[in-house]
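Regression check, adenosine-2'-monophosphate case 198:
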Amino acid sequence: MSGDRLRLFLAVDIPEETRRLLAAALERYGGEIPEARWVKAENLHITLKFIGGYEEEKLERLSNEIRKTAALSAPFRAALGGCGGFPSPRKARVLWVGMRGGQEEAAGLAGKLDARLEKVGVKREDRPFKGHLTVARLRRPADCSSLLGMMEGELEPLAEMPFEVREITFYRSILGPGGPTYVPLEKIALGEGEDGKG
Ligand code: 2AM
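Current build output:
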């Protein structure tokens, strides 16, 4: 059908080993905050750019721009670590796990995508990029500081689990009563970087 919009975003996927560790921590602490909806382990990712609703018929052009941008960005090493709450641990609406390494490179890539995709009609971000994995969303703000303190210890092994980011994933998000389903549409390889040195 003409004019159909897909809900889209671009993300960095995490290695399975990291996913398992996070899933174990979420299972352990998931019950502590009753108002939290925890992200399913298979849905955990680092969002680089939320595209939002985009016309299906223009998808090929969008995808071309993403490929070109990715080709100009070099692979990088990332690591996760630490956790916190947005907007603050005491009044958290979102609980997240942070990036201990690769934040600068991820921010550079997110910035390039943000600038480049504006040309094909995607709204620019109005907030600075902060690389994170959202692990829970809360209906009402809650004080999560003690939970975050406990989780911090559980997440320590992440420091020893750095990983290479060689590609990004172009996702479609399908919203449903049981939460969103993220469908990978395309894996897009990072390239040689602007100076061609990778
Ligand atoms: P978040 O993890 O920080 O919540 C799919 O919805 C992904 O896009 C989520 O990981 C979410 O980031 C991100 N995203 C960024 N801006 C968004 C917005 N305005 N609405 C929904 N998701 C958004």
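Comparison notes: Strands lie at 5-12, 36-38, 46-55, 76-86, 92-101, 132-142, 163-165, 167-174, 181-189. The longest strand covers residues 76-86. No diff flagged against the previous build.
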